What we know:
This protein is α/β, with parallel strands linked by helices. The chain has helices at 22-35, 49-52, 58-74, 88-101, 105-123, 139-151, 156-164, 168-194, 213-225, 264-275, 351-366, 371-388, 407-415, 435-449, 472-475, and strands spanning 9-11, 17-19, 202-206, 230-233, 279-286, 291-299, 304-309, 327-333, 398-401. The chain has two domains: 9-126, no CATH class; 139-485, 3-Layer(aba) Sandwich (Rossmann fold), CATH 3.40.50.
Amino acid sequence: MPVENRIVKIQKRNRxxxxxxxxxxxxxxxxxxxxxxxxxxxxxxxxxxxxxxSGPGDEEVSDCLTDSVLLCLNADPDHLISNYPPTIxxxxxKVMHVLRSHGLQRAADAYACYRWSRHWLREGDVTxxxxxxxxxxxxxxxxxxxxxxEQGCHTQEHVNEQVxxxxxxxxxxxxxxxxxxxxxxxARTVIARLQGPAPLRLIWIAGPTSSGKTTLTVQxxxxxxxxxxxxxxxxxxxxxWPLAEHPxxxxxxxxxxxxxxxxxxxxxxxxxxxxxxxxxEKPVFSFKxxxxxxxxxVRLEKDQVLLLDCLHGLYPPLIDGIDRSAEFRVYxxxxxxxxxxxxxxxxxxxxxxxxxxxxxxRDCRHRNSSPLFTLLHWHYxxxxxLFSILPFEGRADVVLNGGFPFDxxxxxxxxxxxxxxxxxxxxxxxxxxxxDARIRLQRLERVLGNTVxxxxxxxxxxxxxxxxxxxxxxxxxxxxxxxxxx
Length: 486
């Protein structure tokens, strides 16, 4: 449809003014859609049908979305003043708003991750060879898909057939063995660094929420401790700002997912002091009281390695001024690499959906938080990941896959049992503005509906799934001590 546009100029990042070209917006939107296999993967019946009535292809959808961006930009009267035009960042914010308002989650995430990856590239915090782009087409994802195809578990129906045929134990054994091989390679890399000329004093275990960082940290440190490595673990949750300094939204939720929820300056200061051989008074945070309740003296001994499990362990301000040669970076994520159903739709199960289901179970079991609240909170999680976690995967020394092809199989009885752990659609009636939650819930229902789950009693079978398996961190029965689950 024709849209009146009265914006003549835009302001570049160097503050210079250049002529406004709507085609640049259209091309960026089109690239985001094509990078996820096409906008049709984001079609949600009953939510964005009208958008897809604009035309049969990605080009027509991009034209419609661009018109929406132009409407938003022209609605701001300040943008119509020739010497006070919209900035590039303001335009990108509007693109993000339009994509998410139309329910295009895959395209929006790809756009956001690419946007922030470019930001950190301009800042010099990642190099061109570390650039992760939209965060989707990574070597890890391709390797996971190749392994799944080899094992015959690259679609939900393939896994279902193994469950029905009583062959799931073989898949579990093969997948766990593969992960142990990954950990062994990581341990050998760490040992090689410890034996190298530059002293290794700090190991980060970073990655998005519910990727299994804590279990992977315990398993990796066990292997290293057998080689004589001694660790000092520092719990960075103690560096949260007091509850009173976290603003709430209209449902009384707080954004703990941004790195700025932590006292980054104090963390960085303490890390440098510890690495220089000094002692620090580490704060002690009480989640029950929502404030710091004291301090504890901490010192890193000469023969110890400082170990930190942190969402934002690769975030540049956190590690500013720390000698790169003194640190080792492990990045954990979930690479599901599995097609929905029988694979006919060519829609991949989103790894962040698997992590959302994991977190629902963990929060309900250990955080006294309902699955509905976890679902409503997830937009904060995703925004933080796309800005301060996913763009830095390329900075890691080792990348570990914390996902398994049988994750949904083991979570299914807890989420779809009686009573069900997955929220019902009617529970969102009072949260009509949470389009992100509504779309995700529909997708989770579809994915779990295509999953053949195990009987609830089978979850306690340690012969089928050992107690140190990563997924037990979320479904229960873990024999690995999980500090934040105590």
